Each structure stands twice: as C-alpha cells, then as structure tokens.
Amino acid sequence: MKFTRVFAFMALAGLAGSAYATNGYFSHGYGMKAKGMGGAATAMSDDAFGGANNPASMAFVGNRLDLGVDLFSPRREASRTGSAGGAFDGSADSDSKYFLIPEFGYNHMLNNDVAVGVTVYGNGGMNTNYSGGQINCGGGPANLLCGSGKLGVDLMQLIVAPTAAYKLAPNHSIGISPLIGYQRFKAEGLQAFAGMSSDSTNLTNRGYDDSFGYGVRIGYMGKLSPTVTIGAAYASKMKFDEFSKYKGLFAEQGGFDIPENYNLGVAWDATPLVKLALDYQRINYASVNSIANPSNNASPLGTDNGPGFGWQDINVWKLGVEYKYSQQMTLRAGYNHGDNPIQARDAMFNILAPGVIKDHMTLGFTYTLASGNELTMAYVHAFKNDVTGPDGLGAGGTDKIQMYQNSLGIQYSWKM
Predict the structure, then answer these.
(1) For residue 197, what are the contacts with CB-CB under 8 A and spacing of at least 6?
(2) Among 288, 52, 245, residue whose Cα is nearest residue 158
(3) Which are the contacts of 370, defined by CB distance < 8 A and separation ≥ 6?
C-alpha cells in the first residue's frame, strides 16, 4: 500500500478522533485482536499495534499492515432527585450515541532482529451532549447544571506512535515509541459556573480548541519457553499545550495532559489450540490536576488547585482466551475489570464525563483468507454502572450518573 494512502488514513483518524470512556477515559484495548480478548495484549505479538500496547512486540510481528474501524455506542444518563421542592429535579440522556473510531498499524522488519513501524490510534476521550430545558433555576428553562442551552463536553485524543524494536536475543526484545499527540476539546452549557471561574470568558461555549503534546512508551517482551511469553510497557505522562479557550475551566490554566500508565502481561499456550493472556494495567489519573483535583476544591476554576473531575488512579485486569477452531478461523473471548475512578462526592461535576464503567465482556474472531491476509472482528459490551452522590447546586438532592456501552469493530490485515 502506498504511503499516501497511509497518511490519508492518519488524517481520517485525526478527524474522527475518539470518544472512548471504558477504563476511565482510556480504551479497554487497542487493535481488534486485543479488543476481542478483553484488551490483553502486552505479551502478544499478533498485529502492528505495539505502539499502543507494547513496542517490544513489533520485533516478533513480521511485515504487516492493519487497518481497523470501531463503531462505538456509549449510552449516558444523568438525573437529580430530592432537591428542595423538586425545583432542580430532572434527568437527561446524552444525545450522541454513535462514533466511528479508526486505527492503523504498520510494521516492517529491517532484518531478523530490527523492526520499525507506526501505530495510529485514538487513546480515549469523553463525550456528553445533553439537551437543555430539564429544570428551572430561576431564570427560565436550564440544563441539569443550571446553564443555558445544551450541556456537555467533547474530548478527542489521537496519538501517532512511530516504533522501533530490537531483539536482544532470539527470544527477548525491547522497543520504544515516541508518542506524538493531538487533542481537541469543547464545552457547552456551563454558564452557571462563571462566578467560580478565574476567567469566565474562557469557561464555556468557546467552540473547539486543540493542543499538541508528546511522551514516550517503552517496552520489553520475552519468550521464556515455547509456551510462555511475558511483556511489560511503560508510558510517560504526555505533556500537552494548554487549552487556551478553556483556561477558566481546567486546572492549571487549561492544562489537560494524558496520565502516565504501565502494563504487565503474560501469555500461555495451554495447548496447541488454546492460548490464555492476562494483563494488569495501572493508570495514574492523579498525576493530572485537571482530571484528579476534587470537584469541591475551594479555589477558582482554572487555577492550579481549581476543581477538577476528582478521578482516582485505577487498576485494570484484562483476561483473554484464544482458540484455534480451524486452520482459517481463530476465536476469542475476554473479560476486562477496572476500578471506577469517580467518587460519590464528584457525581455532579462528572455529569459531564460519566466514566463509571467497570466490567466488560468481549468476543472476537480472525479469519485467514486464501491470500494469507486476515479479517478480524471484535464485539464489546460494557455493563451498566452508576455513581450516586450529593448534589452541589445548593438545594440538596442527589445526583446519579450512569453508562453502558457496546462496540463492534472490523479490521483487515495485509501480511507482506
């Protein structure tokens, strides 16, 4: 495939962005094979998504190109009950329910020991889009946070990860992926927070703003025996330019970095037909003030210690099984369990970003064509979860946020 087509796909990925909110706001997995196995991929080397999973895996991948797209459908709902006289009681569903999320991976073996490639993927994101008019805050119809018009946020993150991997020995490799990030964001319907903001002119309804950032992911993979492989990867915090149009909303004058994260994995060929994979992932949301600062902080919005979403660090466990049904067909299933980053005290502010999902079940398959190329599909269901906490509008009451998700993805892979 000509590189002009590759770059066209990168542009498409940049325009489509992402709206994942599964393990916090990270995707549960990257690449359709991983998504079919609950996201477990740290000790796997089946595709060219090492830049998102484990750069060291690319030394064992061979020459290939993977193009995929996911139809992602999150269902978000927010409600308030028990406010004084029911004045602020109401509920709303987020209107945005379908997103197309492309991804791309390419790997080339320079020789038996050195691989170079690139992974392009949507890291994650947050999206809500509630219609207004559910409640009356004294000045006419208002949205659930007493602002005018629609309420919601839209955060999309794209990462381009050029990758190099080297075999230290026939069964051991290391890899590195410089991470080049692009993100864009907008917020609507937060006019009621103007009095809490350090810069109310850059708080809400400013349209899209974008920023660029950078970081690095490093990894190791080792085949300890013919049946056991281990892997480990670490991604630094990705430092981004501030969102200047929203410096009165996000802490640190519009700061919004991608937190550091790391993962450990093991894969075991239990039989010639069955492989099991287990990953552990840690996402350190607490290292980013705009994500982690409690929503009840007394400082003005936009300051270093201003209110944030109150998200905690989370642990994620990913378990997958792969079964070679036939020479052409490989079946997959998986389970993914992560902590909920949102605490009860922050329920109201997280109406904007209800990343409360904890449990996922996944299914997938790969069919190998006569040409040797592959067709892969993956289905994910994230079970409904909710968080309930005290409302902060000053009239008592309880806020409840909840979400469940489905996604169906397809990927075509060329072996070269």
Answers:
(1) 203, 248, 249, 300, 301, 302
(2) 52
(3) none
Do residues 189 and 143 make contact, with C-beta atoms less than 8 angstroms apart? Answer: yes
Q: Are 237 and 215 in contact (CB under 8 A)?
A: yes
Closest to 145 (Cα-Cα) out of 404, 397, 319? 397
For the record, the structure tokens of 24 come out as 């916090």
Beta bridge partners of 126: 155
Low-confidence ranges of the chain (pLDDT < 70): 1-21
The one-letter amino acid code at 46 reads: D
| Residue 285 token pair | 């949301």
The pTM assigned to this predicted structure is: 0.93
Return the percent helix, strand and coil in the chain, to nearest 5: 15, 50, 35
**342 CB contacts (<8 Å, ≥6 apart)?**
309, 310, 311, 312, 350, 354, 355, 356, 387, 401
Average pLDDT over all residues of the chain: 93
Q: How far is it, in rounded angstroms, from Cα 206 to Cα 199?
A: 12
What is the pLDDT at residue 18? 53
Q: Where are the alpha helices (DSSP H) in 67-220?
A: none
What is the phi-psi region of residue 302: left when phi exceeds 0, alpha when psi lies from -120 to 50, beta otherwise?
Answer: left
Q: d(Cα 230, Cα 256) in Å, to the nearest integer?
A: 33
Residue 327: how many other CB atoms lie within 10 Å:
7
Dihedral sign for Cα atoms in the order 40, 45, 47, 53? positive
Q: What is the pLDDT of residue 19?
A: 57
Q: What is the DSSP letter of 242?
A: -
pLDDT tens figures, 350-359: 999 999 999 9
Q: Residue 20's pLDDT is what?
A: 62
Q: In whole angstroms, how far apart are CA 229 and each of 44, 52, 224, 333, 364?
A: 8, 18, 6, 19, 22
Q: Which domains are assigned to the chain?
A: 3-76+97-131+146-415 (2.40.160.60)
Whole-number Cα distances in Å, 234 to 156, 260, 265, 294, 393: 22, 8, 12, 26, 40
